[in-house]
Amino acid sequence: MERVNYTLLTEFILMGILYPLRLRMFLFVFFLLIYILTQLGNLLILITVWADPQLHGRPMYIFLGVLSIIDMGISSIIVPRLMMTFTLGIKPIPFGGCVTQLYFYHFLGSTQCFLYTLMAYDRYLAICRPLHYPVLMSAKLSLLLVAGAWVAGSIHGAIQAILTFRLPYCGPNQVDYFFCDIPAVLQLACADTTVNEMVTFVDIGVVVASCFSLILLSYIRIIQAIMRIRTADGRRRAFSTCGAHVTVVTVYYVPCAFIYLRPETNSPLDGAAALFPTAITPFLNPLIYTLRNQEVKLALKRLIGAPRTKSGV
């Protein structure tokens, strides 16, 4: 057989999302504000958890601090590149940059998936096993679980990046998306992608489905335990400790399932759905956890009020 000659790509062009040209400047400023507020909000949560002695040793807030780090990372690898698509001129991303972006997105995204599961398990122990909670979920154990989530996430990200970029890419180089993600990049491969698509579906499907099933099971047990509480005030307090987590899990899982766990389509809704886990959810998480968590709000007040107390004002 005659060998086919081709030139491998050295860069990709991210086409961004469809938008009216008259909104170019508005969208640039909008996502710039989203990015700045995401970084500031998550940094504030991180500082509050670290600085407040009533929070930083408790597993729930260790998980929350790690979630803030992940949100800052996901936002940083996606949103600045998205903003560049709203500026004039073509700004290609190097091949290595595309590999790095895909790896870190799936590394941090899967770690976040595992972390949400740990947070659900933590709430299950706190509500269903309150007397045994200090033994079953210590600060040391929570740190070990977080370390395990990081390791599992890095392995998942490496598998996806290696499988995606082991294929030859010889043109065209226009990625019909706003960042380097598996479905969009595979469309440019100069080889059969059937195996990749199957492995991606199974791998991501197993991670998402298993994590979501464990979260769902935890909350079924939590709801059963709450329903046994006799007072309405007690049930309200128990529900309030879980409300923020349920909200962020819903905002995170629904778009991810829409993007990765369905037959391949080239729908414009893919880009809109991907904005949630990459830009919107990292922005909303600090708001959700501060507005719905009384302990975090009190810790913020203590943190802001501490200088005044020292100065005697």
Which structural traits does this protein have?
three-stranded mixed sheet; 73% helix; single chain; Rhopdopsin 7-helix transmembrane proteins; 3 strands; G protein-coupled receptor activity; transducer; 313 residues; mainly alpha; disordered C terminus; 10 helices
Largest sheet: 3 strands, mixed
- Which sequence of strands runs across the widest sheet? 2-1-3
Structural class: mainly alpha
CATH fold-level label? Rhopdopsin 7-helix transmembrane proteins
Mean pLDDT: 84
The span between the termini is: 85 Å
Describe the global form: globular
- At the first level of CATH, the class is Mainly Alpha
Low-confidence stretches: 308-313
CATH architecture: Up-down Bundle
Helix percentage: over 70%
Number of H/I helices: 10
Strand content: under 5%
Structural domains: how many: 1
Order of helices and strands: EHHEHHHEHHHHH
- Rg over alpha carbons: 22 Å
In quaternary terms, these chains amount to single chain
Going by CATH, the homologous superfamily would be: Rhodopsin 7-helix transmembrane proteins
Number of strands: 3
Membrane topology: Multi-pass membrane protein
Organism: Castor canadensis
Protein name: Olfactory receptor 10G3
Keywords: Cell membrane, G-protein coupled receptor, Membrane, Olfaction, Receptor, Sensory transduction, Transducer, Transmembrane, Transmembrane helix
What does the model show?
With 313 residues, this protein is mainly α. The chain has helices at 24-51, 59-84, 95-128, 133-136, 139-165, 182-186, 194-227, 232-260, 269-292, 294-311, and strands spanning 11-14, 93-94, 174-175. The longest helix is centred in the middle third of the chain and has 34 residues, at 95-128. The radius of gyration is 22 Å and the shape is globular. The chain starts with 10 loop residues before the first strand and ends with a helix.
